[in-house]
Amino acid sequence: MSTPSAAEILRNGLWHNNTGLVALLGLCPLLATSNSLVNGLGLGLATTLVLLITNTTVSLIRRWVNPEVRIPVFVTVIASAVTAVELGMHALLPELHRVLGIFIPLIVTNCCVLGRAEAFASRQAPARAALDGLAVGLGFALVLVTLGALRELLGQGTLLAQAEILFGEGARGLTLHLLPGDRGLLLAILPPGAFIMLGLLIAAKNAIDARARARPRPAPATAATVADGHVPT
Amino acid sequence: MRPAHALLRSMGMNALILGGFALASVALVAATWFATRDTIAAARRAALEASLNALVPAARYDNHPAEDVLRLAPPGAPPLTVYRARKGGAPVAVLATVTAPDGYSGPIQLLVGVWADGRLAGVRVLAHKETPGLGDAIEVERSPWIHGFDGRSLDDPPRARWKVRKDGGDFDQFTGATITPRAVVKAVQGFLDYYAGHREALFAPATETRP
Fold it and tell me: What residue stretches are annotated with the FMN-binding domain (chain B) (predicted)?
């Protein structure tokens, strides 16, 4: 495997191969916890921290792990990292831990964590692997935050509701009440709304990519910009 | 025998590698658990005390309700955990975790506070799976509806009107959601009934204390 540059790692993790919008991994936590900006941000940061730890660890141990046992070893590393992060969150952010509930331990089952360990971290030097974990995690967090903000705004007419469970009591005043009335578009908060909004986000990303490709100047073609069924105009 | 020997050797190596990583992982998790154990216990306790104090202010009692616990298993009903508040040893209030089994999408966990004289100190929802935007108006953060129980008792309103308005009672339902408030009203009245019949037992000295 070639060694990608730091810029490529960041571009792939945050945009071209975004976990939430392109790879579509970890959809269950993505759809379930994106009902508000704060919840989305909380899970996004927790996932980023886990990816950072697991990618770095997997890269550090990659020379000692035989191919035959690498998957169980990676799973062990991921499971213990998630457990440690979960315990830490329970101790430091008990309210957020209560709200996110089962989705913190379920980070273990997010395919993108094992996927990055196997596809990237086990073949790259620690610094690159760490950067990849950070980029992929932040890419996932970005989608969670965007989806959470859109659903919260449409469904409840607020932004940053319950900010205090993530940022402490001082952040209570951060909550913005943007839409009048006490009840917004109910669909946005319900699970079908999560699917619809994610679909719209993916469509928006594809439209932006298509426009970038259609520009007259020759854009560098990357393997990650997969054909999405649109005929280039 | 060389291939078999080599196979055994590589199996042994792999077993050692796996075992080594399992040990290291367990050590990491154990160390984190030890480091966070007290903070987590304190956070749990603080959360419990905060929810108890929301119904029965700390100034009203001088014991530790979070430690003065009674666990009950009434026949035919979900188990109850009862926290007792006392002042100078005299009963002040009980706070019970009551389950409303017939919510719209599963059981609703409530915390019901009852003053010693049988009036409600208040009700809060601990956990529920009701429809967001409709049934979740039972949460105190979303609507003041749950405050409608404050100060009520078995005689106020009279038994015939311990229902939602749609059923001819005194308690509001929500637009589009009747089942949720109906389940809550029924569970609260059910606990008031239980309280009326078991007042002595509910304030009896704890047979079991939690550390």
Answer: 103-195
| Tens of pLDDT, residue by residue, chain A (233 residues) | 578 888 888 888 888 888 888 888 888 888 888 888 999 999 999 999 999 999 999 999 998 888 888 999 999 999 999 999 999 999 988 888 888 878 888 899 888 999 999 999 999 999 999 999 999 999 999 999 999 999 988 888 888 887 877 887 777 777 777 776 656 777 888 888 899 999 999 999 999 999 988 876 655 555 444 444 444 43
CA-based nearest residue to B13, from A69, A123, A62, A60: A69
Cβ pairs bridging A and B (under 8 Å): 69
Asked if A83's CB is within 8 angstroms of B29's CB, the reply is yes
Give pTM, 2 decimals.
0.78
Structural domain boundaries in chain A: 6-214
Kindly write down the DSSP assignment for every residue of B159-206, as one continuous string.
GGG-SBGGGTSSB--BTTB-HHHHHHHHHHHHHHHHHHHHHHHHHSPP
- Identify which of B18, B33, B132 has the shortest CB distance to residue A189: B132
Q: Where are the domains of chain B?
A: 1-55, 58-203
